Amino acid sequence: MMIFNKRAQGLLAAFAFMAASSAFANTNPASALVTIYGVAVSPNADCSNAVVLNYSSSPTAVDFEQTPSLFSGSPSAGTYNCVVLLMSDQLTFTPAATTGNCTAGTTYSRVVCSGNCTYTTITNASSLAPGVTLTYGSTVQTSATTSQDLANATMVPLFISNGTSGTGQTGLAFTQPTGANATTAGIALSGAFVVPASSATFIVDFDNQVNGSQNPCDLGPPKFGFRSQ
Amino acid sequence: MLKNSKFWLMIMILLGTGAIAAGFPGCGSSNGDSVVFYGAGR
User: Fold this and answer.
1) Domain ranges of chain A
2) pTM for this one?
3) How far is Cα A39 from Cα A129, in angstroms, rounded to an integer?
4) Which mean pLDDT values do the consecutive 10-residue runs of chain A (229 residues) have?
5) What are the chain A neighbours of B28 within 8 Å (beta carbons)?
6) Across the interface, do A64 and B33 touch by the CB < 8 Å criterion?
7) CB-neighbour burial class of residue B27 (10 A; exposed 0-12, middle 13-18, buried 19+)
8) How many CB atoms lie within 10 A of CB A21?
9) What ipTM was reported for this prediction?
């Protein structure tokens, strides 16, 4: 009897531990609003001499889950080894399902470049327009201390390069792939962006990244991508 | 002779189709065409 009690107590303790440490399953976003300022293209894998195709200083956020048309541009025919997407690092989403601390239909905003994330500054950001070449400044650590630090959200350049194997999930997606960061910063562009092309698509994939185990509801790092045809 | 007529008719249709397609250089994309950029969630 004594032995049984000890075993029962052990089992109960194990169940209690499992319950305390159990995680809620992640879910997808029903909407993912991203603010896009513009796009630039460069023939170089280090994204130098990137020329702006389109730019707006006051864009509105668009829902990437609805495959929105962002803008159009007419790049010269050629091979571009880097595409730079100028975007806000603040993203707004609604969970597709209720899980843990995330409630379906409720709107949450998070900063995707926070904590140790770094980004390369654009020193001529105030004068960007089609045809203007991006001027890069120093690479700095973001001022956003956490993903909820919305007051420090800012425009960041997402570097999509043929010369890097970066995944965008290490806090270097917005850092120019050059020098010591040549193969780790930015995100990988599978094959060059060859013009003529009819369309190009930027992908910000938050599937299974809505995390209800965090309080408040949190958003994991997205998978960025780019494809053209 | 009939078979030959059908053969030449097919050739003419094929050539005509090719000529029409060649008359639209903007089909697909060409140098200087606009590229539309989209966003997507996956």
Assistant:
1) 24-228
2) 0.78
3) 10
4) 53 47 83 94 97 94 94 90 96 95 95 94 97 97 95 96 87 95 91 90 91 89 85
5) 196, 198
6) no
7) exposed
8) 7
9) 0.81
